[in-house]
Amino acid sequence: MKSKRAALNGSGNNSAEHSGIHFQGQNSFNIATVVQNPIISPFALENPESYSCTLDPASQNATTTNQESWPFNIIQCDKNANVLPASNSSTPNDVLDSTPTVGDSEACPSYTENQNIPTVINTTKPAPSVIMHSSRVSSVIMHGNAVTGGTATNGIGWNHSRTIVSPEREETYQGNNVEATQSKSTSEDEQTDKYRAGETYPERREVTQPATSYKKNKSVIREGNKTETYIAKPALPGTLVNSGIAPLCQITVKIGSEALVKRQISGSSLFFRRNGKPRHSESKLEKARQVSDEDKKERSSNRLRKSECIQMEEMCDDASDQDVSDKPWRPYYNYKPKKKSKHFKKFRKLKKKKKHSRSRDLEDDFIDVENIDEVNVVDTKSSTGHAEDQEDGQEKPLETEDFKDHEKTDKVEMITAQWQMDSKPFFCELCQKSFRNSSTLKLHMRCHTGEKPYPCKTCGKCFSFPGNLNKHERIHQTVKHFKCQYCSKSFMLHETLKKHERIHTREKTYDCQFCSQQFLYLCTKKNHEQKHLAEQSVKGFVCFHCSKVCKTAAALGMHQKKHYLKGLKNKDHKDFSPSTAEIGSWSNVASSSSKESNMIEERSSLNVPESFPPSFDDCEAPLLSFNNSVTEVSPQNVNAASLVENVNEIGESDGHFLTPAPPPTGLNSTMLMEAPRGWKHWKTRQYNLEESMNTDHSSLKESTKTFTELKTMTSFETPFIP
DNA sequence: TTGTGCAGCGATCTATAT
DNA sequence: ATATAGATCGCTGCACAA
Ligand SMILES: [Zn+2]
Ligand SMILES: [Zn+2]
Ligand SMILES: [Zn+2]
Ligand SMILES: [Zn+2]
Questions:
Q1: A204-219 pLDDT per residue, tens
Q2: Residue nearest to nucleotide B6 (CA to C1')
Q3: What pLDDT is stored for residue A478 in this prediction?
Q4: Which nucleotide is nearest to A522 (CA to C1')?
Q5: Which uninterrupted H or E stretch holds A306?
Q6: From start to end of A7-80, where are the E strands?
Q7: What are phi and psi of A254, to 5 degrees?
Q8: How far is the CA of A426 from the CAs of A340, A372, A437, A441, in angstroms?
Q9: I want to staple A718 with a disulfide (CB 3.0 to 4.6 A). Which of A423, A515, A590, A611 is the partner?
Q10: How far is residue A18's CA from residue A242's CA, in Å, rounded to a whole number?
Q11: Is the confidence metric ipTM above 0.90 for this complex?
């Protein structure tokens, strides 16, 4: 059995393939993907047979094109079939109980090029995930709340002039996932059996209209043949199936080609957003909540039990979780956002200059907004420690001012928001990403729609982006065009060659945070670091200065206060002077610790180098913590710990004591040394924390860089190599 | 069993063309 | 302003060696 590389983002959201789901990147089309989620379609509550469903006339003229698209079902319903009872409980349980589980992948035939997928029309029990209404009076299907056509809003509550695009485009796909929201009824079983038996699928249809550009903003209700489209889309494929958080769905209401309302029924959309700036008006959130509540009432799914719903509610109860709901809509497994674009940097620079000319003190508040991509405003590591200004390559000095974090955060938010508004005015409503122009946004929407208009001429595999097709088509060439200039190896793709050549050039390697090893591949590095983390599960409160281990944080505080006082005494005013915040921080720890100054001076005899804190296995207090606040381990935490560690080393290398730096405020003044022993465990925690903090991985990268710089400066000679 | 490197792909960024 | 191509990054799966 082969070992599998640990997934890097650890979210479970990336488990599309793990769970046998192949929305993207695979030709296989796993229908179970959609079926798996009981919440996925409120429509499933409805008795589909009660509708008179006809094929959308447009779709009848549709041509079959690409085979890999989002598995929407599209049904056009008569107007009089529009009104849906809010609590129509007709056979919901049946529906759900018969819902195939994720593991039913074998029941879901792989979709291949020559196969046809049944459209919804061909099934006897259509349970659409997309419904097209001819009605002029729109209503949101589940609860009948009207979205009045005449006063159409964008449903978002924003009043700016951004372009908001809903996932479905002018081209809508004729559903091929009949089973998507349909119960795994006998008919479905029959069908899947048929498919397995090798019978051809009914032809899959696609509604293809001339690709028109997205209308900018403003939902204009066209008179005449207006079509309202309700779309319920599965959320992220494979979302946390195992964790009990079911993938959810999203409802988009389209009138004509205008996306007017999107209701995202996803994890935390089941719950109120506490603070403002909602993307949906409160009433709509309320509606969404009602929907979910009804769902919860009416569904006693085997896979999503009520308790799980409650659990979800609890999970999202915290304000910090609010935006978690946005995450599942990031295309492709919740990818880490790419690096901040140069435009953003330019923007920031401009801002800085403006500020500088206006007021000096604002300028002094250095804000590293590099990290604050999109919604990440929690990680304000810039407030302390070293922050690298990537743009100039200049390293910012240690921040010693007593900042008010929230002010900075606000500034960052402002800057980021303003930048997005100014520089990226094209907004994807589904994932809240912004883009610089409509083309980019259009392209991006393919991630949501699954549109893949670029088929490989050789194998027929379709791609969303021409560049990816080009890359792909090279694999059909047997010739490896790209030769390594250092060895004789050749590669199909230039990018692969470049990656390979890093072996020789040692360029762009990934440094282990804990030792001096470098790795060519990020995943390798992370796996390696995990090893450190696992072994470094130090339980106890470690003094970074002398490696003593204290049983409690208070004890450590007491101990380190000694260091601090000593340092003050010996300090010959180099350039270090602790901030008041810092002193306060340490004093607080110390003062609360008078009772518990039972320091443990025992040093582990494990293979821990002298400079590394000893482990303390039987210590009850698990975390190294400032201010007695505790959080779970995360890459940020680890980096923070490392950061402090190295700051200490700076001080020591200079021959004088340096008080440990305060923890980065972005970590809520918390850092710790404990890591779960298992990688998977760690991953999970990492993900959860990141999600709850509404951060992304970019902060990790930034922190790592900072740390790497420190490492270089301080010549981290004694790596911890277990 | 574990670690490492490669293949391949999705998605985004950036420069350039229209 | 928009569209496009190429570059790039991040990710997973797989093969293979230790
Ligand atoms: Zn989007
Ligand atoms: Zn091909
Ligand atoms: Zn080579
Ligand atoms: Zn290491």
A1: 333 333 333 333 332 3
A2: A496
A3: 75
A4: C10
A5: helix A306-315
A6: 53-54, 75-77
A7: -115, 140
A8: 17, 19, 6, 6
A9: A611
A10: 11
A11: yes
